[in-house]
Every structure is written in structure tokens, then in C-alpha cells.
Design goal:
alpha+beta, Alpha-Beta Plaits, four-stranded antiparallel sheet, 4 strands
Length: about 110
């Protein structure tokens, strides 16, 4: 499994455009075996310099699912809605390893 962490701000006045993107992206995500694990607004920052107001966490069963989603023609049609309504976007993709495996891997470094 991989996780895509999306941090972003919505451009003031573009909320309706982004809402349309959200309505249209969900079935595309589902077609590519993705699940929205979390979507919400930032309530507090404890560390770091990231100050984006919104956060979304999307799980993909396999990295190829994310690749297929990213290249889906239907996603290409709606991506301009996202791009025109958001800024300060950070997208990070992480592969699940588990905490024990991560500790073992790091101790060998």
C-alpha cells in the first residue's frame, strides 16, 4: 500500500471550483482502487513550516494504481479544476513499511 499526503490551500473565491473537483474525482479514485482515508482542515501545527489549510490522505493498494489514476483521461479533464482552485500544494507519496520494518531498516543504515 502507498499513501498520498496532499497539503494545500484553496484560493479565496475558488471554493465552488474546488468543490466541483471533489465531486468529480471520487469515482475516478475508486476506479483505481484508491480510498480517501482522511480529508479535512488543519486545526493546529505542532512542528515544521508547513502552513497549508487543507489535508487529504489517499491510500492506493499498489503504486501502479496511483500511476494509472494520474494518467487517467477523465482525471486529466478535471485536473485543471484542482489546479485553478488551489495553491501552495505539497504532494508526498509514502510506501507502507510498518514501524518494526522501518526501525530495522534504519538501524542498518
Amino acid at each position: 500500500m502507498i499513501i498520498a499526503l496532499n497539503l494545500f490551500d484553496i484560493i479565496p473565491g475558488k471554493e465552488a471550483v474546488y468543490a466541483e473537483y471533489l465531486r468529480r474525482v471520487r469515482p475516478i479514485l475508486e476506479r483505481h482502487h484508491a480510498r480517501v482515508l482522511f480529508y479535512g482542515r488543519t486545526r493546529a501545527r505542532f512542528m515544521g513550516a508547513c502552513n497549508q489549510e487543507y489535508c487529504g490522505v489517499i491510500a492506493y493498494e499498489d503504486p501502479t494504481d496511483l500511476t494509472r489514476f494520474s494518467h487517467d483521461p477523465e482525471f486529466a479533464e478535471i485536473k485543471p479544476l484542482r489546479d485553478a482552485s488551489t495553491h501552495n500544494y505539497v504532494l508526498t507519496v509514502a510506501e507502507e513499511t510498518g514501524i518494526e520494518d522501518a526501525a530495522e531498516m534504519l538501524s542498518r543504515s
